[in-house]
Design a protein that fits this description.
alpha/beta, elongated, 6-stranded mixed sheet, 18 helices, single chain
Length: 554
Amino acid sequence: MLTRLSIRDIVLIDRLDLDLSEGLTVLTGETGAGKSILLDSLSLALGARGDAALVRHGCSQGQVTAVFDVGPVHPVLTRLEENGIDTDGDLILRRLQSSDGRSKAFVNDQPVSVSLLKEIGAQLVEIHGQHADRALIDPAVHRDLVDAFGGLAGDVQMVREAWRARREAEKALADAEARIEAARREADFLRSAVTELVALEPEPGEEETLAERRHQMMQVEKIAGDLTDAYSELDGQASPIPALSSLMRRLARKAETAPDILQAPADSLGKALDHLEEARASLGDAIARTDFDPRVLEATEERLFALRAASRKYQVQVDELPALRDRMVADLADLDAGEERLVALTAAVTETTAAYRAAAERLSDARQQTARTLEAAVGDELPSLKLERATFEVRTERVEEGGGADGIDQVEFWVRTNPGTRPGPMMKVASGGELSRFLLALKVSLAGRGSAPTLVFDEIDSGVGGAVSEAIGMRLARLAGTVQVLTVTHAPQVAARAADHMLIAKEPLKSDQVATRVRLIEGDHRREEIARMLAGATITDEARAAAEKLMAAS
């Protein structure tokens, strides 16, 4: 429900904070006090079209904040989670309206689009008046209301599941037919391609592996010649190692005669021979490691080039060749066994269509019965609302072919306001006041089912007399037993039924300005306001007594 409404700098309202409670809350006040401004402000917070004219004169922007207690299972929470909006605690809708015409929307302090704000607001509040009964215009909503009244949510879900199964079966059949037809047109190419790709046997990631192996072998091939040349210099006929070894032996024999001269050169020459021997051994080991079969390189290149040629031919990446092969094999299998598969898929379509139709017809029968019950319930409410000569009708028309996810029924509310006249859609036939009363009768009959948790009625009692106003007040109070109800009223009979009574009035400010104020009234103050509504500008003792009587009776 709506727990708090805060308004800043909107038209005549400079600063206003309203705390709201469950049950029936009425807002009263003299004409021009600002009741419509209050509803316009609430509408703005719920996503209504913004208007620079709403900003209070002399201010750069206005702001409206609406706080809701939605409980743990309200369907709006799913929509919030889908948009990544925090759902802990109260739900806060906020709208900023700038004097330059721009506006910003926020949900729980997160910026959102106005369209999303409007969608969320529609799930929280319904505002109804003589010219704002959108719920009565859209026949799709009428069907939803009938389903809610009859408790048909389970039947509707079964129809939706059957519809989904039917659509999936139809799509599978259409896809198979399209694939078979495409395969049939390219049968020769397809068979040739399948033969080539099956023989090629491409593997995922194979190109990268082959390219890396080829690169390594080509690098080895380049250095193998240099290694061989170096080894030949140390191990061939021109190797210096034998000559150096002979020279070192000669020096070693003579070192005893002149050790101080020959010993150091002999040792150095020995070390040089040791390093040359190590170099020759290292070169030999490196040559052994570079030894590979050139035929392996040739085979690797042939495989790599074959894969890349197929990639160019079929215009896909090399890594996509396995998937292309599998797809072509499947297409060829569909072509070869197409008729048998089509028969099975066609049978599935027939079966799911029959299942959908059976579920939809059961739902349609339940809707027909529910429609008659709803007609009777609304009809029982009409006499007390001074619509005793009117009739309410739930028109249901069954679609013989096709249907949709919500079934095969088209539902629309029709009325006849006077005997002898032709019935028609409620919005076209009923006048403004009649429309509001039809709406109230419908809402009371639904008893909170298929309704937003907060209902706002704008002068629904306009143009009716005392007895009808009394009946309207009784029904608003009854409706407030299931949902939160706020109503702007000029009828004392309605005001007397309220759990909370708020008075709207203009208050003078400095510099010849005025501001709209709203305050909760109780006791004598409430009696005086109801007496004013009964008597007008001059409140008499008789009016006060009548007000006391109304309040006591309520």
